[in-house]
Records
---
Amino acid sequence: MTDTLHEPFHTDPSTDLSTHVPLTKPQLPSIATTLAAAVSWGLAGLPALLLSWPIAGWVVVGWILFVLALPTWSGLIEGGRKAVDRLVTILVWSTFALAMLPLVAVIYTVVERGAGALSVEFFTASQQGVLGEGGGIYHAIMGTLIITVIASVISIPIGIMAAVYLVEYGKNNRLSRTLTFLVDVMTGIPSIVAGLFALALFTLLLGPLPRIAIGGSIALSVLMIPIVVRSTEEMLKLVPDELREGALALGVPKWRTITKVVLPTALGGIVTGATLAVARVAGETAPLLLIAGTLRGTNFNPFDGAMQTLPVLIFGEATRGGLAEYVPFQIERAWGAALVLIMIVMLLNLLARVVGSFFSPKTGR
Amino acid sequence: MSTIQADPAPPSDPLQEEGSTGRAGDSIFRGLATGAGMIIMLALAGVAIFLVLQSIPALGASGEQAYGADNIVVYIWPLLFGTVLAAVIALVIAAPLSIGVALVISHYAPRRIARLLGYLIDLLAAVPSVVYGLWGRETLQGWVFPVYDWLHDNLGFLPFFEGPVTTGRTILTAGVVLAVMALPIITALCREVFLQTPMMHQEAALALGATRWEMIRMAVFPYARSGITSAVMLGLGRALGETMAVALVLSASGIVTFNLISSQNPSTIAANIALNYANASGTKVNVLIAGGLVLFLVTFAVNFLGRYLAARGRAKA
């Protein structure tokens, strides 16, 4: 790749040391970017105000002016290469702004349309016998809680132990290489396929069209285990070998070395990874729709019958349709549940970061 | 994975030899760890086996049992077309954006801000797909409607924008929502690769007087090419399997068309399962599961290719 660096740099044959050569090339002032931006959006503001464009139109036209103006100005003063550099800088930062747009828009919309639905009843009542206004999502919150907790109880120990095998025992042998590959494959399994797996499994066990909450937990585990394995594996690899060797040299058995030295050192990262995995599956819809089903009342028994969950409730309320007089209440309930779900997921993410920095390894990276 | 050079005979670890310590705890713990690995293998094998078992009855399905199609192939292939079309639209949008965003985080933003920006992109991945779906169905479709109108009026001669524009809930909107969901994955992987570019190459380029963009073009991109390809493949895998966003956004009629902005849209395998499952019975369930098996195989192939490219790129570097 070094040969691409041999692009001829600009050498002017007329340059002669005897004549006066400026030591610096002319540069735009440091406020040039701000200035060009202000002028561009200012100019775009004129027709925007006069023709009363929507805000999006003003932003887009201003952006086009900015993209044209700054590189042109730079090209006139600093030369073509600098101008291209400035153009790319603008484009690259624009991609970031564009990527943030859906995040801001989604959160804003969910808060705006969901906040009105929140009330005491919303958190304490179920949908039992409620068609239009009223009722709540208590049953769905409980369902999400139960199914996610069971999935975590299944996945986190298996995931951590598998990672321990890969890092501490596997030593790149055939089994561990196969396992690494399969975990990679599992990471890519579509969530609905995990749901179909649970469905097929329980169809064989219980007969056609089973509805059972534990099946939802199993489907979520299929999605969750690879995430836990990956993050734990990364963390265990960061534990310095000196710690292992020190413990083993003192005559500590290997399994005590792992449980008392290696795992505690990596604890922060492991907890962060596990929490992020929980956050990831708490919002999964498709597998739960297939196997845990949907229910208007509360069900606390994961081994018997359908159980409602937050994501499935959102999907159900948004698509149910039905009597026109009920639809606005269903849509509002969907947004309210979306707000609650997003808050749960964001809290888990925040918790993961806090825990991660709280337990962060004292060894430094 | 196969390209990783393994020692033909790994150095034997004296502490690992059975009986050398005479302590039962070691072998039990080792057994537990190996067992956990085995469970993962069994689970994956289970996914494949149960899907195949439950798909077999669908092979003979036709007519009413195959939702009106003559046989299972005729039923599934338009869905496969829609799945690929939506995923390709998503990638056409998401891939360039992701590379830009990854560059911001790895090379453009000051280091302290870069961490924060990385978190923000991770939050984009944290929003549940059903919420994106709800947003696409209720909000985004209203925003894109005038854009589609404009596309139809000005670019209507292209087959993609034939219209007629009667709804915002088209396959293009579904593609946009999928792009939002694929973007954080592609960004995260690209960012990793960009950060691994040897500092020496970058500093050498800058020392020769290259601008930042020239440095990125000559030092970072050649190094990261295989990494970017594999990131895009893995993003494609995500977009192919996404269910809820498509099921909520798309107003599907299951036809095969390249017209991106009409109300007659191809459906996708995953969305079709989610929408039809509730009132499926008998062989219909098997037909849906067979669709799931096809989806599993396609995403498996795409992910395999992505991982393979990533491993090959690492081996070369």
Note: Chain A is about 70% helix and 0% strand.
---
Amino acid sequence: MDVLNALVAIANYVLIPGIAYGSQLALGALGVTLIYGILRFSNFAHGDTMAFGAMVTILFTWWFQSMGIHLGPLPTALLALPFGIAGTALLLLGTDRIVYRFYRAKRAAPVILVIVSMGVMFIMNGLVRFIIGPNEQRFADGARFIIKAREFKDMTGLREGLAIRTSQGITVLTAVIVVALLFWFLMRTRTGKSMRAYSDNEDLALLSGINPERVVTYTWLIVAALATVAGVLYGLDKSFKPFTYFQLLLPIFASAVVGGLGNPLGAIAGGFVVAFSEVTITYAWKKVLVYLLPDSLEPTGLVQLLSTDYKFAVSFGLLIVVLLFRPTGLFKGKAL
Amino acid sequence: MKKLLMATTAVALMTATAVAAEEIKIGVELGFTGPIESLTPQMGAGAELAMKEVSDSGKLLDGATVTSVRADSTCIDAGAATAAAERLVTSDGIKGMMGADCSGVTGAILSNVAVPNGLVMISPSATSPALSTAEDNGLFFRTAPSDARQGQVMADIIMDHGIKTVALTYTNNDYGKGLADSFQSAYEKAGGTVTISAAHEDGKADYSAEVGALASAGGDMLVVAGYVDQGGSGIVRAALDSGAFDTFYFPDGMVSAKLEETFGSEIDGSMGDNPGTDSPGAAKYAELVGDAFDSSSPFSPESYDAAALIMLAMQAAGSSDPAAYKDKVMDVANAPGEQIFPGELGKALDILKNGGDIDYVGASAVELIGPGESAGNYREMVIKDGKITTVKYR
């Protein structure tokens, strides 16, 4: 019984939040890694692209809600998601046309593009705050829980509760679908193959007749979809506040780098590695150990490696360790 | 030369009349600019209302009039606040100060200006526990309670419900940390156990990690010393979602209509407190103020009381000299004597003049304890059927 209680406690406080957070990071890191692989720069505006996508989706969600359109137990935001993606795609293509294309034509060094993307980041940041305001917005509706903690306790008779929120279930499911679609696209379709070719060797790809502008356009479209999905899932699961998306940039970049920049598989793995390091290192293991260990060995302290305040320090630490010892990341990506 | 002589005579004459009916200046030093600039107009107006009431009655020190001299404490800039206070003392010649407002600048003015110049200060709103032990030569009082007091009240309420172990989380700033520390020491003194005292940062999207640590430490109840518009609500939401805690304790930063709105009956059985009183003083103050300004604005009643106490103490001492009346502040504020409510300052002056005793209750039910600070009045409440319900006042 104690072992079961310990397992449920781990699942409730570590596994389930970790998987949901990891999926959100993985989707974000996929966007960063695609831009790095194909357009060859680190896009600092990605966090705010997510915020913009989530914002458009929220505005459509509110509109649908006001018209009385609902998805039953599912959040209405899922219905608004395609519109959010379309809005973000327009923004990204517009940005590319106005800003990035100029630097691409000049074959600017990646470091210049990084700085340019920072400028874009501040503008998007301001745009989102200007439109929806800097405050927290709630847009989740539908059923909040798949399993409630109290119901789980009554059902199983265990002392520990297990809660799974609808948003967590949707996050994981959507992430799986999106990742499957992305890989099918990259591996099986002609456009996907041309994107990979462009990523591997730009000059060779040009020689074999691949239209670079077409590749760039498709990349931005996919990034818009990934960023919006990631942003909406994060907002549904946690809460939407423009500033927190800006802060997400660090764990997202950590995920992409840890996995290997430019490698989509690595981005997914990196997302989960970062999420689980953050959660397990800042979790207080006392409760689990009390269940597992005999009375005489019970810990008196909290058995917490780092206070939860240092969550971002974990991403930073991981980033530094990987860059020092394995600059190409866990999966073979491009060296920074 | 003739003109100069005339002028001198005129000035001399004027001073002579001023001595007959003294004109007393009282400084009102509040943060008219800065983080609490939305509160200070009502605070200043409250203090000046008391001064006007006293001046109009003509009973203070045989017909003295009281005028207010405003100065900006900025709430945060100790240098600017000290300079402004210095100006009040040296160039305006104030006899007492209603202020300052924020704890930091109040401490700075106290040690740099009030103590060296022997000036009495009564702050309506500085709540830092550190001011209780500040070196003040008996010159500093406050009509606001120390945050340490709320910690004691929280410990009492939780103990009264027979809850012996709690987890504690606080917003990571001076307010949260001070309140958490004072609660923890009071609760542990009363025999309770705080399993964990963890800070949380405001403005984050997700508090599940913080709640994970709190849940792991365990406890029968979670004390959330935070803000309802900020991380406090996030903590409660995450704790409810993960089933970590069912009941909570909410200090003043958490008690608001938003709490009912956000959580409703999900937090039934939780309890809390916020400053409040069932004394009729507040209603009388509101009546006195009328439509002039918002009398329920935080610390506005306390400001009225602070100014009133200065003038009543002067009357009791028969002098506007701070060195003389500083010892009378506690006497007029506390029992024994006739209870005095807002609007009755004239009556109080009469009683004092005839050598009687008064117990100033005022707008905020003033009761000065210890080193001259308000005992504080708190409303104990529980959440019942999703509504905040008052249990009693303590």
Note: Chain A has one domain: 2-325.
---
Amino acid sequence: MKKLRFNRSQLCIPYAVFLILFVIAPLVVILYYAFTNGEGQFTFKNFASFFSSTNTLGTLLESFALAIVTTIVCLLIAYPTAYILARSNFKKKYVLLLLFILPMWINFTLRITALKEVLSVIEGNISKYQFLNSVIGMTYDFLPFMILPLYTSLLKLDKSLLEAASDLGASKFTVFLRVTLPLSVPGIISGMTMVLLPSMTNYVVLDMLHNSTFIMGSLIGSYFNAYDWNNGSLISIVLLVIIFIVTLVTNRFSDEDSNSRGAVL
Amino acid sequence: MKKQIKKLKKIAAVSAALTLVGAYGAVFAGCADKDETITLRVSSWEEYIDLGGWSDDELIEIDNPYNEELGGIIGKNSMVDDFTEWFNSTHDFKVKVEYSTFGTNEDLYNRLSLGDVYDLVCPSDYMLMKLIAEGACEEYSDEFLQSGEYVKSVSPYIKSVFKDYGWENYAACYMWGTTGVVYNPEKLDDISDVKSWDILLNEKYNRMVTIKDNVRDAYFVTLGILNKEELKGELSKDKRSEILNDVDSETIKAAEQVLKDIKDNVYSFETDAGKSDMVTGKVVANYQWSGDSVYIMDEAESDEKSPVELWYSVPEECTNLWFDGWVMLKSGIDGNAQRRTAAEAFVNFLSRPDNAVRNMNYIGYTSAIAGETVFNYMKWNYGVEEDAEDVYEYDLSYFFGGDHKIATDAASFDFEDGDRTVINRGRQLFAQYPSESVIERSTVMLDFGDKLGEINQMWINVRCLDLKDISPVTYCIVAVIAVVIVTGILLYVFRYKIFTGYKPKKGYKKVEN
């Protein structure tokens, strides 16, 4: 019997098929719809109407503001947490880390529904604080994505560098500012991208907590619900381009330490 | 019951998946000829038919002339199964029902235009109109229109409405109702606030009322608010219909502004949460369809922890009278006489008064079927003994014909005048069967026609956030963040210059070991 042998390129076939079916083909379809009208003719009208409407631009700005505020709040909470976790001599610190990741194992619509009830109790009427609630909801949802990269980059940090800085007379604050912080920049950037990008396009959390006003996700959804593939696709493309630019910029910044990026997830 | 719903959804999903592959349709049709089984493809609203599984104590204790052994009316098996069993034992060929559901009329329409095939569907009034106008509907046979169970049992009122709009040969009404406001009288400041649609704009109830996340309902309300004064006066039926079906571009623009104001005042645009928000008391008033209102009122008063008594009000301006009706589709029936017989038999089976009662009891909506059995069911549900304290004879002769009055508890209505003829607010009975004064100021909302795109765009504009409506705080946040990011980038790029004064040469940057 002949032995079954695969060479490298043959082993790539399953992934190539997946890539073509679920990444490239949908992209082509979206591109096609974005630049055609209902009758299938080529047009820039969808494009023009998106950028000339103050309504869609306002929604874009609001989504952006939401995403950025969420990212910053996540960073402010996650950095001290990751710092303490990475530095603690506590033997069971993996248990502590687990506690932060644990919520990710529970279905997140369930978590947001519960959060909604909690917020109702605290705030009385949640619909009065839609922006705040959305930030809280998304922070809750994406915090682990910020903590993990920060934790790994702080953990990998060479302790002898810190000792050297102290030996040379730096105060604790200076050590942090001049050594720890610069060395954890790749972690910060990795975490920020991991939070910023999904929160730009988030749909479910915002739909549940920011109900009466559309943000980008629900705007796309509303076009698709009305079976207007063209405008919906165009907005998806706009988001895609924005995300692409953000990724490009962040990649440039962590080029020199690229081997430490994305190592955790 | 839950289990059955799940099962049905699974069936629906599978059948939808199968029908997506167009070729399967032909395969099914091919099978049908061989073993004489017709597959009847029915599509209707979610949870819009009795799925059976009632426990014994849910028996409706009224005379059941169609099945006296039962001693009442009860849904042991699902309606669809009962139909199949009845049909197969009374006809010379067999039928299998493929029952699927849709979420909105537009959903159904789009599925049809994408090539899904159904024999019998149950859209609402305006979608009926559209389908009929497009010539997609099959006319019912003369036999059905002259001696079918539906024609025998349907209410004279429904019959006349369907005749007026010219749907009578194409559509058989299934359920009907009004739109109104479910409210909690204890939490309202003043009961007269709920008399008008502008409760949605009332600042007293800021973020305490909800509206449906549905462009047609929202637009209708807006027309009611915009033409408030005129609608309250005496108006002919045609004039009323004209005002409430106004799709002028200027009206649409005015509506956009009103809806934006409503958006800033309501708790949420709800799709499903309205029911629970009302029961838990998060909102005090909720724009609703009459059938769901009945369900909400039932739920709220049987809530174990804190039962609440909710009411249903039809605002003084107008109400949207709606009808859901069964239509046969040409694309599905496709000239097949057996399939047409099966489809008509299905409608007739649902129209049998005992089955109408089962559906009504199960889903909470009001059937188009009149007749003694349905009337007795209403009496059994809401009637009181003759010697009760304050009995009110609620006149339903417009619907049941003749002299049909239900002796019911006067406390379940909110009368506005001494002689108790004007009724605009009440409890379940009123929500199920509106009073004649409500019917007088109701109108059917027609299809938007070629203005649909414009109105959909208006709705999206309402839900979006205009640049000028964004709060200054947000602008400040974005500006500050932009400045921070730019400074950060600059600091990073020139970090060696600023912090250390020199840039390490290449090769010294990183220490590899």
Note: Residues 54 and 209 of chain B are 34 Å apart (CA to CA).
---
Amino acid sequence: MLRSLLAAALIAPLPLIAPIAAAPAMAQGAATLTIHFDGIEQAQGRIMVAIYDAEGWNGGAPVRVAMIDAKTGGADVVVAGLAPGTYAVRAFQDVDGDMKFGTNPFGMPTEPFGFSNDAMGAGGPPSFDAAAFAIGDAPVAQNITLR
Amino acid sequence: MLSRRNFLGSGLAGAGVLAGAAILPPEKLYAAMVPADWTLGAADIDTDVAPHAMRLVAGRAPDGLKGVLYRNGPAKFRRPGGSATHWFDGDGMVRRYAIDGGEARMAARFVDTEKRRQEAAANAMLLPGFGTPVREGAVMTSPDSANAANTSVLVSGGELLALWEAGSPYRMDPDALETRGLKTYRSDLAHMPFLAHPRVEPDGTVWNLGLAGKRAILWKLAPGGALADTQLIELPRASYIHDFTATARHLVIVLQPWVLARNANPIIQGLEWLPETGTQILVIDKNDPTQRRIFEVPAFFAFHMDDAWEEADGTIRFGICTTPEPKFVIDEARELLLGRRVATPLPMLSAITLRPDGSASLESTGVAAEFPQNDRSRSGLKRSLTVHTGLYGHGCPFARSVGVYDWARQSNAEHDFGADHLVEEFLYVPRGSEEGDGWLVGTTLNLAARATELHVLDARDVAAGPVASWRGDAALPVTFHGTFAAG
């Protein structure tokens, strides 16, 4: 019954991430984004990261994707070359290595996930505004707890 | 009962003088004339109850009865930043009553759920429930974030499972009642719903359902507790399903006309009562879920049924506690948390018969009853006794009697614990091999003593009342369901 509160919308916009993230060309003057992941309970599979702008957040394409091996005690991914602007991140741990965000037969998440600003919706993904952060000229750090 | 007039009369006559103490009875006698405060039955408990010996207050412990009664029910509803708004949404507390060597001990612990952790940290009830809305600050990563683990228990695979209905079982140590975490039968089935009313065959095979609107998962566990099989099935309608029943060969799913019509917060507000559509009863072959039949009976609402059985010609029979409408769950179970009584129609023990020709009937016994139970060693087999709670409607939302209905004789025997007791579900514990040769084991909340009591009755002489009663040191709120682990 609570399934409805966790509409598939929570997961659907998390894209299938290509095995190799496209290497971005370094934009002139763009800052580096470092994302630190906590809450990793098993060192298995990779953390799949998707970075969105406002336009892509609700079902569109991410502007960048990245992957990093899951390690207990935390993992960091560094993304360089993002153009100045406002972004938000969706991430999940691909525990079983199938490149997909795992869901049970009723569509509920079975793999840990998280969002930038550690934003968490009650029964769906957070709004772009809740997860949004700005990228300017200076390096930016984000902490995401996978849950 | 001592009436006020008689007391004044005898006091005056006995004393022979108009002394104040003789004219008016002591205050405690007036207090005894006011209905007991049933709100203790839905009060908050703030701490676990340490294991302690219960005091024998009546009778003596029956020879040969040894085992543990586990019970589960909500025991924390209110926090300063926001409270549960429905009886079904309090935090699950598992109670353990051990009977051994003529003595009884009790202990109780809250299930250490994610819900309880979030809410303790926020000092508010945040997570959504059946009738409690989600509040700002709730973190929902799966239905299990809101899992109250408050409805029943199942001993399975050497563990005690605390059951809810919209998420996973919670694993507990059956002795220390320590919470071990969620039960995940297979990683791809994490967070799938598992009803609080599994049906257990005499050999220990467990059947259960989990619901998501019209979709259902059918669980089958092997006698040792391992996952044997799952099937995904589609139901004809998105009825609210709390319980189902089973014969040796079939699962019997009552699809009442209380249907999830829309997503709402809380869930109960998305359920619509559509009596004109009647009640459907779906019968599914345990060995081949594609083999199904649908029977139709007039509209009713029900939470609970007893174990079904099947006659040689295929006729299926079972008992069910029905009300004309879902009034208790919508109104009374909400208001009782506020200490308010809303009188709603009494649940009546009724018989459902599903015949091979496709016809079906629903007949009331005329006995007000809930929490139907039976000899679980006869589940799926022909039998004639159903244990129940009764005497509802006496000024409080809870029962005050335990009874046994005999379907063969069409007779009912009950023991009235009196207005001071809130009576919880009683379980049938077999003693000999003959049906009826057994004990009824259950608990009441004694409002006068402000203590939870454990009782044993002889199933053959229920009206005689308990053969043994023990009183614990704690007054715990009324529970929903339990199980008895013999030995």
Note: The helical segments of chain A are 54-57, 128-131.
